[in-house]
Design brief:
mainly alpha, two-stranded antiparallel ribbon, 13 helices, 1% strand, transmembrane
């Protein structure tokens, strides 16, 4: 493909389709870390939900049952993580990494045991979520600019895509304009002061972890039921860590975190689009360099913003109630 065939419009559409994986995971991490719990296990919960959603969806030929099963499993893992990190005061970093390693291997073993296809599930076929065509999309498709934005950029996505973008203002409202959000921020900043004010710190953190588990499961379900149509070993491909990077980029704020997710989604789409493109002067860019783009961006973001980002003050610190 020549440089003249390079289409920026298709990159924008791909960005919208790539972003939900990161948005769901980043919002999950936001709830956990705003409560004071470091959630390195986003990757593992995504993999678990992706496998269970694909397996149950294929078996029942019903994507919604698959999503429901993925939510249940991811929520159970989040509660286990909460038990280790909150109740037992365990090391949150070690717990998260251990879950990631365990679930990476377990999902592969279970997929091989049940389906015998090299650690992947069969193609879901009709069990995938269908796309939604917005009203009037076909009628305005020919209108310059506006028609393309409505019929191609905004229309033609699955319900999970629309849910991901609707989640951004919803999470902002919950965090900043509800009693639960106030308590969540309080236990993440100063749990002892929150406890003195009558807030149940452990219960609030468990509720945050449960919320994180549910949201993270939607990220995994999106990977297998929407994007790929099957489960494949380690198909999360570091998206859980990219979601954490988006949290740092967004300074643990929902809107800015979502912008970080869109940025990473854009570079992931750009990576696919420029593969095989022959550029003037430099020619074709090697595929290995193209695959490095999202990770190089991650390093640059962390190097540039880590010192400026202000994490919740009590993050990573087990709460021990004062006597």
């Amino acid at each position: 493909m020549m440089f003249d065939d390079f289409q920026f419009a298709s990159i924008l559409v791909s960005t919208v389709r790539n972003a939900p994986v990161l948005i769901f995971a980043a919002m999950a991490g936001l709830f956990a870390e705003r409560s004071g719990v470091v959630d390195l296990a986003l990757e593992g919960k995504m993999l678990a939900a992706a496998f269970v959603s694909a397996a149950v969806g294929f078996t029942t030929q019903n994507p919604w049952l698959g999503i429901a099963a993925g939510i249940a499993v991811s929520a159970a893992i989040a509660l286990l993580q909460g038990f280790v990190s909150i109740t037992q005061k365990g090391n949150q970093l070690v717990a998260g990494i251990a879950l990631n390693i365990a679930l990476s291997g377990l999902t592969f073993v279970l997929a091989q045991f049940f389906f015998m296809q090299g650690g992947r599930t069969p193609d879901l076929g009709a069990a995938r979520l269908s796309t939604i065509v917005l009203p009037g999309a076909e009628a305005v498709a020919g209108v310059p600019v506006i028609g393309w934005i409505y019929s191609s950029l905004l229309s033609g996505h699955t319900i999970l895509t629309y849910l991901a973008f609707a989640l951004i203002p919803l999470v902002h409202w919950v965090i900043y304009h509800t009693r639960f959000g106030l308590r969540l921020r309080a236990v993440g900043e100063n749990p002892h002061a929150a406890d003195a004010a009558g807030v149940n710190v452990e219960l609030t953190r468990f509720m945050a972890m449960l919320t994180a588990g549910v949201l993270c499961s939607l990220s995994g379900a999106y990977l297998s039921i929407v994007q790929s149509g099957f489960f494949l070993r380690d198909m999360s491909a570091g998206n859980g860590y990219l979601a954490l990077t988006a949290l740092v980029f967004g300074n643990w704020r929902p809107v800015y975190t979502a912008l970080g997710c869109l940025m990473f989604g854009f570079f992931a789409a750009l990576q696919v689009q420029i593969e095989g493109v022959v550029f003037p002067v430099i020619g074709k860019v090697p595929g290995s360099l193209i695959q490095m783009i999202p990770y190089v961006v991650t390093v640059v973001v962390l190097a540039g913003l880590m010192a400026k980002s202000v994490a919740p003050k009590a993050i990573g610190q087990p709460f021990v109630k004062s006597r």
